[in-house]
Design brief:
alpha/beta; Rossmann fold; Nucleotidyltransferase, domain 5; 2 domains; seven-stranded mixed β-sheet; 13 helices; globular; binds adenosine-5'-triphosphate; binds magnesium ion
């Protein structure tokens, strides 16, 4: 569909969004996954950019490349809404027929860059997406810089920790701010595949569910198994990187089945792609695995508890084998993962990122102390990563592992 000049189009917005059309200095929407925050803010900005020549800054804490910004989201929404003829989507900016412009910038370090700050003076609306990642310093740089009369600061975020600057702002906003919590049940277009994930987490871990789907802050962040080791960032594998290494974890009953693709370079681990499906039947596995480029050309190391699944996939043309397990192989694997300087998770690997947040040590219910035992959940992606790296982990630990000759 493409809209012709003079044609009237109707664009649907959910009911919760109505107040956001009024002017306000701060417009904040926070809540759990799939509530429609990103789509509504992107769509509203697109609509406004067709009404008036405005400058819109899409800001985030770090933006190493344009792929990390909402550029892609906005360009997609322009297409979905049938408005492509009214925009020119450039590599690093987007312009509408009114002359309105979308800019995309990372804010960290901007304070010391006078030219960058100057370029923001004419901004009418600043949208901070994934606001939970913005630092206090960046928020303090941004707020006085967006100073054109009538200018607005829009923020969308999934609450993470109670002392995150945007969470404090949302809980204690200046008068006149528009702040709403929105969750999946506020989204009339909540997709069925997300609903399946939602129900699964509701059944398996109510605490994590409250965080991921109901938009509550996360508890016990220090208990994270990968605490301080991981970050989200886009990258393109270089020719001299080691890998790719593929690892698979099987879902039992309604658990997820996972395939991951990782690389190693300069003592850093890169998680490039993931396939993730709940309750996937065996005959659907090849299609799930084929979502990852190169899955049929490289060795896949998999949880060895399902020899029949492994042999089925072999017959389907995959180079797949069971990964060895030994006493302490989980702890050795975690030690190996923590031995990397940094683990970079590509933004498209949403489950890897979510499990990096949720995969935890047990916490004593009475004292809140972190215990030396690992919770057996939110480990699907990271188990798959351990399997992918099993030969390296085994070499490092000097273990022989069990023989898997029958596979
Ligand atoms: N206006 C709309 N029209 C049609 N579908 C929509 C609309 N808004 C949201 N959706 C559907 O709901 C899904 C979730 O929306 P969105 O990605 O905006 O949620 P979110 O709150 O940003 O989620 P997350 O917390 O995961 O970032 C979209 O992928 C889309 O399928
Ligand atoms: Mg979003």
């Amino acid at each position: 569909m493409n809209v012709a000049a003079g044609q009237r189009i109707d664009i649907a917005f959910p009911q919760w969004f109505t107040p956001y059309w009024q002017p306000a200095r701060y417009k904040i929407a926070h809540g759990g996954r799939g509530s429609g925050k990103s789509w509504q803010f992107a769509r509203a900005l697109i609509v406004l950019s067709l009404q008036k020549k405005i400058r819109i800054l899409c800001a985030r804490e770090l933006q190493n490349s344009i792929q990390e910004s909402v550029h892609h989201l906005i360009a997609d929404q322009i297409d979905v809404m049938g408005l492509a003829a009214m925009f020119s989507v450039r590599e690093k900016s987007i312009q509408s027929v009114t002359g309105a412009e979308f800019l995309f910038k990372g804010v960290r370090g901007m304070k010391n860059n006078a030219a960058q700050l100057k370029s923001l003076e004419g901004v009418d609306i600043c949208w901070i997406e994934e606001g939970q990642t913005i630092s206090r310093a960046s928020l303090e740089t941004l707020t006085p810089t967006i100073r054109k009369p009538g200018s607005e600061i829009w923020i969308t975020f999934n609450p993470d920790q109670e002392d995150d600057p945007v969470y404090r702002l949302a809980m204690n906003p200046p008068p006149g701010s528009i702040v709403r919590q929105v969750n999946w049940y506020d989204n009339p277009w909540f997709p069925p595949d997300l609903d399946q994930e939602r129900r699964w987490l509701q059944q398996t871990d109510p605490n994590a569910y409250a965080h991921v789907w109901e938009g509550r802050c996360r508890q016990y962040t220090d208990a994270q198994v990968l605490h301080g080791k991981w970050r989200i960032g886009s990258f393109t594998p270089e020719p001299d990187w080691h890998g790719p290494y593929f690892g698979a974890d099987w879902g039992f009953a309604r658990d997820p089945t996972v395939l991951v693709k990782v690389w190693i370079a300069d003592n850093q681990l890169y998680v490039e792609q993931e396939a993730w499906g709940i309750g996937v039947e065996i005959d659907r596995l090849p299609a799930l695995f084929d979502k990852l480029a190169g899955a049929r050309n490289h060795v896949i190391r998999a949880d060895n508890s399902r020899p029949e699944t492994i042999s089925y996939l072999k017959r389907q043309g995959f180079r797949i084998q069971g990964a060895a397990k030994w006493t302490g192989s989980i702890e050795d694997g975690i030690g190996f993962l923590r031995g990397f300087d940094v683990i970079t998770i590509h933004p498209r690997c949403r489950h890897a990122a979510e499990e990096a947040r949720l995969y935890s040590y047990k916490v004593d219910a009475l004292t809140g102390d972190i215990l030396p035992r690992i919770e057996d959940r939110h480990n699907h992606v990271w188990d798959a990563v351990r399997y992918a790296l099993e030969p390296l982990i085994r070499k490092r630990q000097g273990h022989e592992g069990v023989s898997l000759a029958w596979l």
